[in-house]
Design goal:
mainly alpha; three-stranded antiparallel sheet; two-stranded antiparallel sheet; 7 helices
Length: 174
């Protein structure tokens, strides 16, 4: 539903312009970022659920699929933990579930994605593509570029703050 707000034209005559979420939105902040994240994640989780997969499993599987070389379990856990700030035990559990389902396979100390794992990611991507296209359609390229720069800066600063908090929590070692 859109509402109208008075605006002025160059001749100062009032007109009525439709408003949308983008014209009513407050400046970006942590809450807005979180709401956008969870809305988009909710869409993805809808498609993952059709395949009996979780968000954490998908992120972990994608890390294995996109790696340049097969990774050890510890390397995958570290990568996912760095991305999601997840508990390592939860990521290890997701790895175990992916192995049990045959979406990853152990090859010595390395884990490799299987064709079934790649097919799962491809199926979810294909099923969610039309919805994703609708979500992103009509957003000007310059807005997407600006948002990308801002989000990268926020992530960089938040990661630095988190590292500082972790260092202070750990305290001095002797």
């Amino acid at each position: 539903m859109t509402t109208s707000v008075p605006t002025t034209t160059p001749t100062s005559l009032p007109t009525t312009a439709p408003t949308t979420a983008s014209t009513l939105a407050a400046p970006a902040d942590s809450r807005a970022l979180g709401l956008a994240h969870y809305a988009a994640r909710g869409v993805l989780e809808h498609f993952l659920a059709r395949h009996g997969a979780t968000f954490l499993q998908q992120v972990t599987l994608r890390a294995a699929v996109t790696a340049e070389a097969p990774q050890t379990a510890d390397a995958l856990v570290s990568q996912v933990r760095a991305s999601l700030k997840s508990d390592p035990a939860d990521v290890h559990a997701a790895l175990g579930e992916l192995l049990t389902r045959g979406l990853l396979v152990a090859d010595g100390e390395h884990l490799r994605p299987t064709e079934a794992g790649r097919a799962l990611l491809a199926a979810v991507a294909a099923e969610s593509a039309p919805v994703s296209a609708r979500i992103w359609s009509g957003i000007p390229a310059e807005d997407l570029a600006a948002a990308g720069r801002v989000l990268a800066l926020v992530a960089e600063r938040a990661n630095a703050e988190l590292a500082g908090l972790a260092a202070r929590t750990a305290g001095p070692t002797h």
